[in-house]
Design brief:
Strand content: under 5%
Number of helices: 2
Structural class: mainly alpha
Number of strands: 0
Shape: rod-shaped
Order of helices and strands: HH
Helix content: 25-40%
Length: about 60
């Protein structure tokens, strides 16, 4: 008697159904530098650091 496979609404293409672990994508923490969200976050972090340094530790009152 054959086993009945459960319904899969998004089946994998025929060539990707048997992926080898040696050809899989690397984990996200090793490829996150290619993500645009990472670079936006880096930009804002460096902008915040620059504002902090330029404003003399965020002191915005006049110095005597």
């Amino acid at each position: 008697m054959r086993e009945i496979e459960p319904y899969n609404p998004h089946p994998a293409p025929a060539n990707e159904s048997h992926k080898s672990p040696y050809h899989s994508d690397p984990p996200y923490w090793r490829r996150f530098h290619r993500d645009w969200k990472f670079w936006v976050a880096v930009f804002f972090i460096f902008a915040a650091l620059a504002i902090y340094v330029i404003s003399y530790d965020l002191v915005l009152v006049p110095h005597n």
